[in-house]
Design brief:
single chain, elongated, about 20% helix, 6-stranded antiparallel β-barrel, alpha+beta, binds zinc ion, 3 helices
């Protein structure tokens, strides 16, 4: 099973490892820093042994990387894995911005229900089952989120169950939430955020989270 170093250290951008197996253009690795879509967070972009990764897919605890064209890699071969750091760092910051907003939503509107979430490079979105205009609480949510971000709290990300690969993030005194994504080490790294409302349908409200820079 691939060892997922993006959890141990989400700031690694380059890694020397080995190919474990190849089937056509699909390969598996011994270690990885290359996140594969899960928990709503999009996959990283990057290369393995200078071959572009066109898809990263979580299969149970394994991650299968699909490379483009003829890659010529063989099992046991040493390779360098590189990720697009600009993209990943935005994903990490937006992911955590969404975590803070979600936590504050639950506290502000206790009967609200999350029905979906997605973190992309340009924005994060959270969908809620909710009758009414959710933007009524935005000024309060935005100012609470700002104060958590400005306080620059440490964000602990760790295993709750290493065998099952179950993880959580925690800001002491604020929240502890189950999540297997990648998060920054300090809340201040998120920076200034903006919230926008989208109404995707009856009884459903969408909150979009943007980084101001
Ligand atoms: Zn998370």
């Amino acid at each position: 099973m691939v060892k997922k170093l993006f959890w141990q250290n989400p700031y690694l951008t380059e890694l020397q490892t080995r190919v474990v197996d190849t089937i056509g253009n699909d390969i598996t690795l011994e270690h990885t820093i290359f996140y594969a879509f899960s928990g709503g967070q999009e996959s990283d972009h990057g290369t393995i042994g200078n071959n572009r990764v066109i898809k990263a897919c979580k299969e149970g605890k394994e991650i299968v990387y699909t490379l483009d064209d003829e890659h010529c890699l063989r099992p046991g071969e040493p390779v360098v894995v590189r990720i697009d750091w600009e993209r990943r760092y935005r994903l990490m910051r937006l992911h955590f911005a969404a975590e803070i907003v979600l936590e504050l939503m639950y506290r502000t509107l206790p009967s609200i229900e999350k029905v979906g979430a997605h973190i992309a490079q340009d924005k994060a979105r959270i969908d809620f089952k909710w009758d009414g205009n959710i933007s009524a609480v935005f000024p309060f949510i935005a100012s609470e989120a700002d104060s958590i971000i400005e306080a620059d709290h440490e964000i602990v990300s760790a295993f709750s169950d290493e065998e099952k690969e179950e993880r959580f993030w925690e800001i002491k005194g604020f929240a502890r939430v189950a999540c297997g994504g990648t998060h920054p080490g300090k809340a201040g790294e998120v920076g200034k955020i903006d919230l926008k409302r989208k109404n995707p349908g009856k009884g459903k409200e969408r909150v979009e989270v943007y980084l101001r820079e």
